[in-house]
Amino acid sequence: MKHTMNHHSYPVIHHFHNSQPKLSVTPAIVLLDEAYQLLGNALQQGVAVDEVKMSMLQTALDAYLEVVREGFLKNASPNGKAPAPELEGRRRDPAEGEGGCKALLRAGPGERRKLLTTLLEMDGWSWREVYQPE
């Protein structure tokens, strides 16, 4: 939320970048959003998730993405596609199969994943830095 507020107060902050993926805000936010989506959609049943914290995280991520969309990515479209994460042994329902979770992550938040892909590309990164950090 602090980073989102900084974008409101100092829009120029969006144009500052770190050359190391591990220290850059954009891959970190995309990774956090991916983790959030997996926690909400792909965990095995019986795994406890704190719903209050999940709601707070969703609010923070949504607020940041809305600021970025309105201020910097109005008409941008991604060149690449977001990959589906490997989910073997981590899916919510073993009978569903891995394909069901991958399809859910691709189709469910499709516009969101397009926005995340565009955000990465506009910042000079790709999904490689999200799933295979150096």
Write the layout of secondary structure elements.
Blueprint: H1 2-9, H2 25-41, H3 51-71, H4 98-107, H5 110-122, H6 127-131
Helix pairs in contact: 1-3, 2-3
Report on the structure:
With 134 residues, the protein is an all-alpha fold. It is 55% helix and 0% strand. It is built from 6 helices and no strands. The chain has helices at 2-9, 25-41, 51-71, 98-107, 110-122, 127-131. Helix 1 packs parallel to helix 3 and helix 2 crosses helix 3 (51-71). The radius of gyration is 15 Å and the shape is globular.
Keywords:
134 residues; mainly alpha; 6 helices; 55% helix
| Proportion of residues in helical segments | 55-70%
State the low-pLDDT regions, or none.
none
Structure annotation, total helices: 6
The major pleated sheet works out as:
none
Please indicate the percent range of residues in DSSP E strands (runs of 2 or more): under 5%
Shape: globular
Compute the average pLDDT: 75
State the order of secondary-structure elements, H for helix, E for strand. Answer: HHHHHH
Overall SS class:
mainly alpha
Count of DSSP strands = 0
Using the CA coordinates, give the radius of gyration.
15 Å
Note the gap between the termini. Answer: 27 Å
In summary, what is this structure?
The chain has helices at 2-9, 25-41, 51-71, 98-107, 110-122, 127-131.
